[in-house]
Write a structure and sequence with these properties.
Chain A: This is Exosome complex component RRP43. Chain A: Keywords: Acetylation, Cytoplasm, Exosome, Nucleus, RNA-binding, rRNA processing. Chain A: It comes from Dipodomys ordii (Ord's kangaroo rat). Chain A: It is found in: Cytoplasm; Nucleus, Nucleolus. The complex is a heterodimer. Chain A contains six helices and twelve strands. Chain A is α+β, with helices and mostly antiparallel strands. In chain A, a hairpin with a 4-residue loop joins strand 11 and strand 12. The radius of gyration of chain A is 21 Å and the shape is elongated. Chain A has a single domain, classed as 2-Layer Sandwich (Ribosomal Protein S5, domain 2). In chain A, helix 1 (2-8) packs across helix 2 and helix 3 packs across helix 4. In chain A, the strands form three sheets. In chain A, strands 1, 2, 3, 4, 5 and 6 form a six-stranded mixed β-sheet that branches. A four-stranded antiparallel β-sheet of chain A has the order 10-9-11-12. Chain B has one domain (25-227): Ribosomal Protein S5, domain 2 (2-Layer Sandwich), CATH 3.30.230. In chain B, 31% of the residues lie in helices and 32% in strands. Chain B has helices spanning 83-99, 123-138, 165-170, 197-228; strands at residues 6-9, 25-29, 37-43, 46-56, 69-75, 109-118, 146-153, 159-161, 173-180, 186-193, 195-196. Chain B is globular. Classes of the chains: A alpha+beta, B alpha+beta. The interface between A and B is medium-sized, with 34 and 36 residues.
Amino acid sequence: MAAGFKTVEPLEYYRRFLKENCRPDGRELGEFRTTTVNIGSISTADGSALVKLGNTTVICGVKAEFAAPPTDAPDKGYIVPNVDLPPLCSSRFRAGPPGEEAQVASQFIADVIENSQIIQKEDLCISPGKLAWVLYCDLICLDYDGNILDACTFALLAALKNVQLPEVTINEETALAQVNLKKKNYLNIRTHPVATSFAVFDDTLLIVDPTGEEERLATGTLTVVMDEESKLCCLHKPGGSGLTGAKLQDCMSRAVTRHKEVKKLMDEVIKSMKPK
Amino acid sequence: MEGPPHSDRGTESGPKVPSCSLRHFACEQNLLSRPDGSASFLQGDTSVLAGVYGPAEVKVNKEIFNKATLEVILRPKIGLPGVAEKSRERMIRNTCEAAVLGALHPRTSITVVLQVVSDAGSLLACCLNAACMALVDAGVPMKALFCGITCALDSDGTITLDPTDKQEKEARAVLTFALDSVEQKLLMSTTKGFYSNSELQQCLAAAQAASQHVFRFYRESLQRRYSKS
């Protein structure tokens, strides 16, 4: 009977739960889904991570290649993110060129990398003006159940922490690059941006970590990307119902707690990987 | 009601604090003959032309049964539209959806087309202002007007509103907000660079104060247009 009501009036069904300050899956309004992360699962990639946020699954693979540095910045390398939402993850995506959702997510990840300065592009330079690393970060969603931005940001961070680049020396006589695959270094990750997404309901209620259904019923979304020392890298609110300054403050405090949770999880995973 | 193309010069608005002054505004409405509504918005040297078609027929696969389908197309000045344009289109579309009363025109489409004529800083804010004026010109029912305000934060925390291209490049952070006219609530926000929470609150407060000037300019420019004819 509840299933029938849910199909006919999904919004009313949802409101009944919100009145009791909880959600259909039993979570509180400010509670995140169980987050799990698995690092280094793709052996052919230079770094990889799989993140599961409830049912939402995103895998990130980082491959490093050589390229000539840009002419206007000869001492910088490149980081090129790309988010792919294949038809596998949800019935709403079709095969073919990337849809709007994928493009917006790719732009968001590119902005996060740029704003948070997660990697200093100068670190990726091998020989100024001649050779630099380019890191292709491919994020593929395997299961879409809402909150794709949080999962992608976390997957990217975990994968970058896992990347090992071999040492490259330029041979003076032949001017060719010599790659020493035996000696590998981890990347210097300077900051740890963590994204926290909220959905706005009926112009007043804010819920954290929306699932796919909740996103469809929501009247607006908000994503806050926070760094250590509570520095904000990105406040992404693509339209939707208005928010007052006070509501924003609540979001900020929730984002700070989330950052601590994620950082703890990341540190545990990295520590468990070290013996390898 | 087709008035003759009316050009309105905006006043140079400047609050008490010298660094928080907005550039010279200008707005011209009803300048294109084909779209149902059109507007050209100038902020300093940044200029955006907007055209609105709607409410018009919508393709069956895009129609929504209980409200209007809003579509935004943003054309950059040079080159083909890329991923950044798609992201901006999504933000402008969602902002318009929050302001437009789509429920009054179900199963129709409202298309907003924006063409960047010149870019000298604060582009997204100018696009939002042009879109709002064009929607008003087309007579699309809205529950509130909206405006875009850009803030630039430089390394020592000074806030500059409506920055030029040069100021944006030198700033530590650039924040663009869309605010509504009824309660100055935050409709849309997109930021570049990093900043602290208190700086965000300051920028938001400054943007809310500046939005009053923009809304007053909207009102004056519409009053002038309709009082002549």
